[in-house]
Amino acid sequence: MASSSSLLVFFFFTFAASSFASSSTSSSSAGRKTFIVQVQRDAKPSIFPTHKHWYESSLASLISSTTNSTNSDPATVIHTYETVFHGFSAKLSPLEVQKLHSLPHVVAVIPEQVRHLQTTRSPEFLGLKTTDSAGLLKESDFGSDLVIGVIDTGIWPERQSFNDHDLGPIPSKWKGQCVAGNGFPANSCNRKLIGARFFCNGYESTNGKMNETTEYRSPRDSDGHGSHTASIAAGRYVFPASTLGYARGVAAGMAPKARLAAYKVCWNAGCYDSDILAAFDAAVADGVDVVSLSVGGAVVPYYLDSIAIAAFGATDAGVFVSASAGNGGPGGLTVTNVAPWVTTVGAGTIDRDFPADVKLGNGRTIPGVSIYGGPGLTPRRMYPLVYGGNEGGDGYSSSLCLEGSLDQNMVKGKIVLCDRGINSRAAKGEVVKKAGGIGMILANGVFDGEGLVADCHVLPATAVGASSGDELRRYITAASKSTSPPTATIIFKGTKLGIQPAPVVASGGTMLDESTGNVSTVMDFGAGHVHPQKAMDPGLVYDISSFDYVDFLCNSNYTTKNIQAVTRKSADCSGAKKAGHSGNLNYPSLSVVFQQYGKEKMSTHFIRTVTNVGDPNSVYHVTVRPPRGMTATVQPEKLAFRRIGQKLSFLVRVQARAMKLSAGSSSTKSGSVVWSDGKHTVTSPLVVTMQRPL
User: Fold this and answer.
1) Which residue range or ranges hold the Peptidase S8/S53 domain (predicted)?
2) Can you name the residues that pair with 330 across neighbouring β-strands?
3) Confidence at residue 30, expressed as pLDDT on a 0 to 100 scale
């Protein structure tokens, strides 16, 4: 017999749903979209054996009050969540969402986002060498007992990167499964790939049943992205390895002996939040140590960001979460997955390149890159060069070399200059080849900048930067009006190592911004280029607890209900706000934005706490390099530790004077705070942005 209090909770839910009944019931199911509903876990009435039963019954009661009995589109639970999040996902109408918001044990109703997907030498470039007698790889046994959960497009288990040769038994903590499906038998897993699942309910709820002739209803990867990211994280040593003959060598991931678990959430139409959250939930319950996620979307407040919420739950359970920074550059404010409890990783170059230069009829050589592996162009022969935008009925479509846009009579036997955008880079080559073109030059647009991507192509092709694209168009236009028509050829130079500049681990040199070629700023490189070997002995670390993040959200003016949606913790923000501001989160970096409201002088302070993980008796002295034109001081100037694990705090004060700025503009300057004991150097970037409001 259920307790009276439990029954009251159940009847309240039913009554609340009934009390909102609308006369326009026939239209209430129209325009349903997927929402993720967070509930208070301990509010479940005892008459229900599981939370899923409670969610399904409650949802049915809610829906019945707003729809007629003949409704052919009843709402159903898409997923239930138990580990990193408590609640369920379902397709709901606006009226149903409104009703759910009003219920006391519903913490949040979050609209679903659709997310999108964002090499052999990397370990060596980062200083991780298999030949070293000591170091991170050796001391960690190449990550042997680590379990990495990859949330992506699935995995291709037959790849040699995922063989289990000489690996020990599966870690005893592992609770995951190898879920069979289309093209993926249950024996696809081994001691390397120890788990595989797929999540498609959210995808199919929005798009209908998947077309199983074009994608697998299983963990098998029909895209390649998931297999790629999994091999980067934990691929075994594979030799010989190359791509169409380029980059020959040993292919390996960063932790070659780590175990992998694949969680497929990305499908032809994208990666749906309800499925991503289900994958996080399963991964943490299965026993992963690390979650790697290379998808992203729009930046929204944390309490509306399912990835941020799931990542917090995973982090709170002791799981390290790494996510991609996105492919939205090179402009400002384009990074994604920005929650401070997530390690957000951006792309960088290494000291390897695949040059494929364009030689023009006027003698100029324009640098480009490619990993085209087919028959090359005839040596020392120059080919007619045309711009796609001049050779089609629709100048815009043909400039982008979209399907069916090129006039075969105008491009046959010629090298075609195509602009980047709309369709994929490789697809443009297909279009040129179908039209009879002999080769392709792919030019970046202004928003792509000068950063180049070396692609596999179906015909001789190379990629050039935005400024080179402009030069090529000018050359084509001018030469077309002269007695010497525009000509070009592409010279493929294979794989080159030791390319400079690159963010070489051993350098004191400054990294460059790939998009412009200029010196990068802290807003470009963030925390900087990773140095795994130094991470073994950093000297000092900046520890953060879950409750520090609660204080951070309080100081970011989140409501207590918003904070509960993110952290599943009750929050009393009165004490946190008295303690400081959001900049006091115990991060190594120090950043402030000053709004110039006619003030001549502005100031702020930061409080930081460092933990000694170096020598027991160590003394650190500070060196302050304030941003140009500003002052910064640190108190105390010396930190004397007496034991490992000891924590000491310091205060940083920053003062700035108003700058000459036009309305709506801003200026960012950076400096640093550096602690050193003679053996370790611990650097914190100090960034000040001055803004003048409109």
Assistant:
1) 143-369
2) none
3) 52
Q: 273 catalytic, yes or no?
A: no
What residue has token string 């004397």? 640
152 flagged as catalytic: yes
Give the H or E element holding residue 554.
Answer: helix 546-555
Q: Is 257 exposed, middle or buried (0-12, 13-18, 19+ CB in 10 A)?
A: buried
CB 68 within 8 A of CB 25: yes
- Of 54, 73, 53, the C-alpha closest to 63 is 73
Q: Tally helices (H) and strands (E) across the chain.
A: 18, 34
pLDDT tens, position by position, 566-594: 999 888 888 655 557 888 999 999 989 88
Distance CA 196, CA 262 (A): 5
Out of 405, 468, 670, 672, the active site residue is 405
Q: Classify the phi-psi angles of 326: left when phi > 0, otherwise alpha if psi is within -120 to 50, otherwise beta.
A: left
Q: What is the DSSP letter of 450?
A: T
Residue from 224, 159, 138, 210 nearest 181 by CA: 210
CA distance 272 to 199: 9
Burial of 197 from C-beta contacts in 10 A (0-12 / 13-18 / 19+): buried
Distances (CA, A) of 494 to 242, 251, 397: 12, 18, 32
pLDDT tens digit string along 254-271? 778 899 999 999 999 999
Q: Please compute, for residue 660, the number of CA atoms within 13 A of its CA located in the half-sphere on the CB side.
A: 0
Number of Cβ atoms within 10 Å of the Cβ of 241: 16
- Indicate which residue of 152, 513, 524, 551 is catalytic: 152
Q: Is the pLDDT of residue 80 over 50?
A: yes
Q: Which amino acid is at 295?
A: V
**Catalytic pick from 53, 105, 116, 225?**
225
β-strand 238-243 against 246-251: which pairing, if any?
Answer: antiparallel
